[in-house]
Amino acid sequence: DAMVIQNPRYQVTQFGKPVTLSCSQTLNHNVMYWYQQKSSQAPKLLFHYYDKDFNNEADTPDNFQSRRPNTSFCFLDIRSPGLGDAAMYLCATSRGGGPNTDTQYFGPGTRLTVL
Amino acid sequence: KQEVTQIPAALSVPEGENLVLNCSFTDSAIYNLQWFRQDPGKGLTSLLLIQSSQREQTSGRLNASLDKSSGRSTLYIAASQPGDSATYLCALKGYQLIWGAGTKLIIKP
Predict the structure, then answer these.
(1) Residue B77: its pLDDT value, please?
(2) Are B6 and B102 in contact (CB under 8 A)?
(3) CB 3.0 to 4.6 Å from A43: which of A15, A37, B3, B83, for a disulfide?
(4) pLDDT at residue number A100
């Protein structure tokens, strides 16, 4: 089945130790998104790629970076995780066909713990 | 600035009841509205998407309505089951997705 895959599902890192989260998709969608979701809160968009064009949200900390080496893969790099970065990180994709019809499909998420 | 509110934050009902979840928004200039389900510690599953020009969408026991003039959408769940227990989030598509904080639904057997 076509889907959005996130690895790992659970990630534990130490304060200040860089960590990379992975997202892959078999939907061949143009757009890939990274969201941060803290407990009992709505998802917060960090950034998205439309093909190779990177779009960063204004309030996304510099500590968060992203890479999209090809259509299928997108990575979230956290350069120096702090305790406040512990959250669920959600990857999503969409066709990019236009705002009227552009449904986002989500992966299962990676839960990040910072010790 | 678009604001999305979901009230109540939590809801507990006995199995078998019909129920309505609410989503209100401040700016009617939207492209579409989407309802998602999120199980504890899991990702998001899209349930229904209503285009701006539509009034409602149905999928199985779920019916979502959209009234832009009043800034309101509802998600109706018929004959609720314990497996419906989850957090339900609405999201409005303008330039970006603007999310509500969700309603945590518990269906008691």
Answers:
(1) 97
(2) yes
(3) A37
(4) 60
Strands A4-7 and A19-25: antiparallel
Question: In this predicted structure, what is the pLDDT of residue B1?
Answer: 81
Contacts of B51 in chain A (CB under 8 A): 100-101
Query: Which one, of A70, A67, A69, lies nearest residue A78 by Cα?
Result: A67
Using CA atoms, how far residue A35 sits from A54, A89, A101, A107, B69, in Å, is: 14, 6, 20, 11, 30
Q: Do B36 and A106 touch (CB under 8 A)?
A: yes
What secondary structure does DSSP assign to B21-80, as a single string? EEEEES----SEEEEEEE-TTS-EEEEEEEETT-SEEEETTEEEEEETTTTEEEEEESS-
Q: What is the mean pLDDT of each run of 10 residues along chain B (109 residues)?
A: 91 96 92 91 88 93 95 97 96 83 95
| A45-54 average pLDDT score | 93
If one counts every other C-beta atom within 10 angstroms of the C-beta of residue B104, the result is 18
Residues of B in contact with A92 (CB under 8 A): 44
* pLDDT at residue number A2: 61
Q: What angle do CA B88, A2, A9 make, to 5 degrees?
A: 60
Task: Decide if A99 and B45 are in contact by the 8 Å CB cutoff.
Answer: no
As a whole number, mean pLDDT of residues A40-45 equals 89
Closest CA to B109 of B85, B86, B88, B87: B85
